[in-house]
Amino acid sequence: MRNIYNKSPYRAREYGKIPQYLQKYGNKKWRRTEKSEIEDQLSETVKFFKQRKKRRKLIWVKITREINGRTDSDYRSFYTEKSFKSSISRAHITRYILINNKTKKK
């Protein structure tokens, strides 16, 4: 990658290859074209396969809580065990049930 980057202003603020106010746009274009050029060269030699991200398993829980003699329960999902445990440690929670095979209905 040849660095034909538009540098900072020259001596006594003279214009270089392009005026200072256009350097930002020139540099953006340079980055964009150089990046695609490098990717083209690499794709000729090495084939990159896009990796799939492993899908996180949700922790589904039915939480029941009692406030002033009134009970209500709701289903919640958590990505991490830490967030699940902090949710359980809230006030007024009477019980919770872990649900293994919960699928989201659309």
Give a structural overview.
The model has no long low-confidence stretch (mean pLDDT 79). The protein is elongated. The chain folds into two domains: 11-45; 59-99. It has helices spanning 20-45, 81-88, and strands spanning 59-67, 70-78, 93-99. With 106 residues, the chain is of the alpha+beta class. This is NUMOD3 motif-containing protein.
Give a topology summary.
Blueprint: H1 20-45, E1 59-67, E2 70-78, H2 81-88, E3 93-99
Antiparallel strand pairs: 1-2, 1-3
Protein name: NUMOD3 motif-containing protein
- Secondary-structure element pattern, one letter each: HEEHE
Please work out how many helical segments DSSP would assign: 2
**In what range is the share of β-strand residues?**
15-25%
Task: Give the CA-based shape.
Answer: elongated
Mean pLDDT: 79
Helix amount, in percent?
25-40%
Oligomer: single chain
Protein name: NUMOD3 motif-containing protein
Quick summary of this structure?
By secondary structure, this protein is of the alpha+beta class. The protein has helices at 20-45, 81-88; strands at 59-67, 70-78, 93-99. It has 2 helices and 3 strands; from the N terminus they run αββαβ.
Question: Main traits of this protein?
Answer:
106 residues; alpha+beta; 2 domains; 3-stranded antiparallel sheet; elongated; NUMOD3 motif-containing protein
